[in-house]
Amino acid sequence: MRWSLSNANVPFAVLAMCSALLLVGCQSAMFTPSTLPPEFAAPPPSSGHTVPVSRLGAMPVSETLFAGDTVAVSIASGDEEHMESTIVPVASDGTVTVPLIGKVAVQGKSELAAAQAIRQAGIQKHIYRNPDVMVVVQDRLKHRVTVVGAVSRPGQYDLPAGRSSLASALVAAGGLTENSTPVIEIKKPGSFRPVMADTNRPNNVAPVSHIEHIEPQVVRVSLAEMRTKGRNANQLLPDGAVVTVGEQPERYITVMGLTTNQIMKMPYDREFRILEALARAGGPRYSTWISNKARVIRTDPHSGQAISIQVPLREAQVNPQLNIALASGDIVSVEETIGTFTISTISQLIGIGRTALVGATALP
């Protein structure tokens, strides 16, 4: 979006910018791109949009059973032609209750491993001699996760409990927008968890010793660390979690002087350099062989100190180090030189002469 200074607020905007230029010229520190201290350099872009959320790590494809899942358990002793299935839920303690056999721990096991555990339990209890057992998931427990902020489709999403990772939640929400921040906040609700007694019981089924209360948590994760180190990307989000992707404020610079005066919006996800800004403004009014002087007025956000950076435009076209990156709030001014002043003066004199000649010709 481009903001022109050709509106009703121009006098105030131009007056404010001119005052700032005069103030900076008198009181600020003067630098060139080569002498600019690192603390005054434009901060690097920090948009989360540059991180492809689908590549934040291997998406967890967990086929293990969770409390809340529903499974079909089929058992045949060998005499039946067809296996009869019983639909049972995985209880909060991670067990299923199988007819005749009783409770069997299955949480964290695959369908095949759960079938093996049920088979062994039936043999140990002398209910079956050599049964065939099959376990098939009928319905997965879902975790409802809310994603808000700088994503394409904010809302609530029901994710399979074994796949409710942060990466999955962000993909479900359509990914990050360009104005997203690289830090994400996750609010995990409080919950209650049964703690099993530390005893050796048949079929690994232990009684509950007590109920543990887990306090609500707020954690912040860095997309950069997730991408480079795989941290947090595959950690499962609990039911009721709220994922908030921060939004960056809009960033603007002002271009003025011997070019088209305008307030210009900066991109979030990449550097925005002085030559690109001037090109978007239509370029300097004269050739850089004549109009070679540009100044960047910058206010340090930490100290509030205003600095001035002199940029030679002609040299910046061939030397990338002189084509400095701009920071939000910068004022870019293409300034008068002796050459531009001379050309402007001659043009004005020619214009005055033409006006006088036309006026004289029009006389009776």
Note down, in words, how this protein is organized.
The chain has seven helices and 19 strands. By secondary structure, it is α+β, with helices and mostly antiparallel strands. The protein has three domains: 2-46 and 250-342, Roll (Outer membrane lipoprotein wza fold like), CATH 3.10.560.10; 50-59 and 142-247, Roll (Outer membrane lipoprotein wza fold like), CATH 3.10.560; 70-139, wza like domain (wza like fold, 2-Layer Sandwich), CATH 3.30.1950.10. The strands form five sheets. Strands 1-16-15-19-17-18-2 form a seven-stranded mixed sheet, with helices on both faces. Strands 9-8-14-10-13 form a five-stranded mixed sheet. It has a three-stranded antiparallel sheet with strand order 4-3-7.
Question: Topology of this protein?
Answer:
Blueprint: E1 2-4, H1 10-27, E2 29-31, E3 70-76, E4 84-89, E5 95-98, E6 102-105, H2 111-124, E7 132-139, E8 142-149, E9 155-160, H3 166-172, E10 180-188, E11 191-196, E12 208-214, E13 217-222, H4 223-229, E14 242-247, E15 252-257, E16 262-265, H5 274-280, E17 293-299, E18 306-312, H6 313-316, E19 331-334, H7 338-362
Parallel strand pairs: 2-18, 8-14, 15-19
Antiparallel strand pairs: 1-16, 3-4, 3-7, 5-6, 8-9, 10-13, 10-14, 11-12, 15-16, 17-18, 17-19
